[in-house]
Amino acid sequence: MSQPILQARGLTVRFGGLTAVDRVELDLPEGQLAGLIGPNGAGKTTCFNLFTGRIKPNEGKLTFAGQPIVGLRPSRINQLGMARTFQNIRLFGELSVLDNVLVGFHGGLKSNFLSAILRLPGYVAEERGMQRRAGEILELTGLTRLRDEPAGSLAYGQQRLLEIARALATDPKLILLDEPAAGMNPQETTGLAALVRRLRDELGVTVLLIEHDMRFVMKLCEQITVLDHGKVIARGAPHQVQRDPAVIQAYLGAGEGEGVAS
Amino acid sequence: MPRNPHEKFGLTALLKPGGLLSPGALPPAHQTRRRDTMLTIGACLLAALGLWLLEGHASGYVVHLTCVGAIFATLAVSYNLINGVTGQFSLEPNAFVACGAYVTALLTLSPAEKEASFILEPLIWPLSAFSIPLLPALVIAGLLTALMAFLMGFPVFRVRGDYLAIVTLGFGEVIRVVANNAQSVTNGPLGLKGIPHITNLWWSWGLLAVCLFFIVRLVHSSYGRALMAIREDETAAEAMGINAFWHKMLAFTLSAFFEGVAGGLLAHLITTISPSLFTFFLTFNLLIIIVVGGLGSTTGAVLGAFLFTYGGEWLRVVEEPMQLMGLDIPGIPGMRMVIFSLILVGVMIFLRRGILGRHDFSWRWLLASLGLGRGSKA
Amino acid sequence: MDAAQLTQQMINGLTLGSLYALIAIGYTMVYGILRLINFAHGDVLMVGCYFAWFGAVQFGLPWWVALMGSMALTAALGVLIDQGAYRPLRQAPRISALITAIGVSFFLENLGLVVFGGRPKAFARPEMFNHIYQWGEVRVLSLSIWVPILTAIILAGLILFIHRTRMGMAMRALSRDLVTVQLMGIDPNRIIAATFALGSALAAAGGVLWAMKYPQINPLMGVLPGLKAFVAAVLGGIGNVTGAMLGGLLLGMAEIMLVALLPELAGYRDALAFVMLIGILIFRPTGIMGEELPE
């Protein structure tokens, strides 16, 4: 636990004249349930995009599991053990629920394409293993019933769960959840909270999540980082962050209806 | 983009759950694998019997057409792998077919034949000095075409969408220009003549079988799922650990391999090749085939290829003089292509997913549709 | 190569480049607004040439009347193609529209073959374009002087139009985003129609000048100029009218200079555009005028 699993130093990215992420520092201890919050446009999703290699920072360093990851392809970063979900759900809409999960295993596949075509024993064993583990993940996320449905036909909340299921299939050490509860009803949100906790407790996955549902964040997360205008303005346990004047100011100043202390 | 996999238009409605041809949930593939393999082998034997009968009893014209159909089916299935399955809309198959055709022909033509053909400039050594049998020539042609695709892939897959289309089309044009100008290799605009007529039903259908074996199995493997994931959402696929670039390369080079081999067989079917045979027009025909069949459906590509081959012959009536209600209507040469173009535009507007959408044939589906084999030892 | 030859080749390059520029603008305007490579643009140009041919040769109209008439008819054709083939696909994936455009392109070519026949038709050069000017060693056809001049006039008019008129400004706005245009209260479909009309009219002008240069027309004449003009548009930075002009000039110059300086490679001239295209997409994907490539 000494070495943080994800570490950001001076992380900065600019789009044109706008500094979207400004010298962000982050130390995410392994096994933590952490939250990343802030008003709309604070740079939260941009941070996720930076961590996962989708965009490259202008400045700064990123270390994941002891390895520098700036400049690596997103697929490589994922293979190192960082998975994510997307705020604006990006499932493989025409593939079945099961296939969406199976796709997640592909990055870890050892057999080459010829042995896959020729169905050599090594590939067949791997495929069987993927099918079995996909079944377990669907069971865990409660999607077993829907395994043959096209992902695009699922209800909103189920699609969010499938995003998590697919990310889990990549066998992550760290999972980044981008607004996992958005669009869910209270019952689904409760289920989601339980699922996220199980990911950490039973599978040992470190979780970093962005969420606007403050009750959800405050109840679930052990450590919260608050971003505003691309800068980290506060960090700490939920009850500390909630009372932080800078945080209250940021949320009030943003003029949003969402209170921190709800 | 509408994500609903079942478009409201046309024939795909039949395949919708509850539609005429949709038996509902199918038994899982792994439970019926042995039975399905037996059925496939049986079907292949049946097809072979059919070809044998065709060879013995049908006219030379029908046999030729059936060879062309199989070659086009091979081309369409390969083209569909990159365009339909992987969703990388590219326009270069004419280049790959040309490469395969020229390489194979240059390897099989006898030195004497080559010397007679290359009038303006002699063929470069060592090509001028030897010839080899068709089978190794086809393999070499396929590998060289795949290598060309591999090298092309580096610049080409830096771009996406319609830029990819234009760059690949540009490559096709470059190859045609090279074929026209590299006199000492391609014999320029004169092309190659006297290529031995070796391709028959067994060669063409054999290639189709091999191609289907490879591509269907690839598509129904973890690699196939990865390719489709790239088609559906490249960003998400990358985030799930799939290296989009190398997977596109895989689909591209594999399809180039089979397109090259098919080009070689085509050359040994029509016995004369020249650069004018491999213009964008060839790609256009393949595009119609895979779009009408259903972009992304291997079954659709095969179906489209045979519809195109036989339908195209049938459509020749519009180019011939005919009598209609006592009126003499002169033939209109070129009318077929007008109709083909209209079909393409019409399909895009009214039946965007083609005949089969992204559905593929499987024994499970067929048997379940016939009311057999449902829930077999589940 | 001596100075006289160089001058002569420069003029040739300028002429060819102007023609590419005229055609490239239609591509770039449509792309800017619809993100559609209007594959049929080169074939629209071909039809425009036949319109002018009918006007000038069959009906014996003065060349400039035939040109104007052809531009008007071709503009109508462009709008018709958009309304008939592209408009139903506005909400469809972009690739569907591209496939349709390829279909329309082949439709026009083959319809041209059916209706006009495959044999090239002679396109008489009007008297004023048929002089040979001679300065010392430099011999130049008057057409080669007139083409850049006419092009410059047309382009000046175009730039005034898109910067000064309400419709022109709406076009520019639409190529950035739709919301502004809706705020301006102009129906986007009218703007798109106007764009097709304008682009097609320019293609007709380019085509007629092209036909005078060679001087013959056939149903497949639009294919290569069309493709190359698209490359020119990308070279200049697609969606950008000034870029399209620069790209066209650059491509024309490069082609002529390739033939002039490396005559043994003259046969590869038609491949040059695509080699440049591949090069620019690798090294500077935003083109000369540098707007972002859309994903």
Task: Walk me through the topology.
The complex is a heterotrimer of chains A (262), B (378) and C (295).
Chain A: E1 6-15, E2 18-28, E3 33-37, H1 44-51, E4 59-64, E5 67-68, H2 74-80, E6 82-84, H3 97-106, H4 113-117, H5 121-141, H6 156-169, E7 174-178, H7 186-203, E8 206-210, H8 214-220, E9 223-228, E10 231-236, H9 238-243, H10 245-253
Parallel strand pairs in A: 3-8, 3-9, 6-7, 7-8
Antiparallel strand pairs in A: 1-2, 1-4, 4-5, 9-10
Helix pairs in contact in A: 3-5, 3-6, 5-6
Chain B: H1 33-57, H2 60-85, H3 93-108, H4 111-117, H5 134-156, H6 161-181, H7 183-186, H8 201-219, H9 222-232, H10 234-239, H11 244-270, H12 280-293, H13 298-314, E1 322-324, E2 327-329, H14 335-350, H15 363-369
Antiparallel strand pairs in B: 1-2
Helix pairs in contact in B: 2-8, 2-11, 2-12, 2-13, 3-5, 3-6, 3-11, 5-11, 8-11, 9-11, 12-13
Chain C: H1 3-34, H2 41-58, H3 63-86, H4 94-116, E1 121-122, E2 132-135, E3 138-141, H5 142-164, H6 166-176, H7 178-184, H8 188-213, E4 216-217, H9 223-236, H10 241-261, H11 269-283
Antiparallel strand pairs in C: 1-4, 2-3
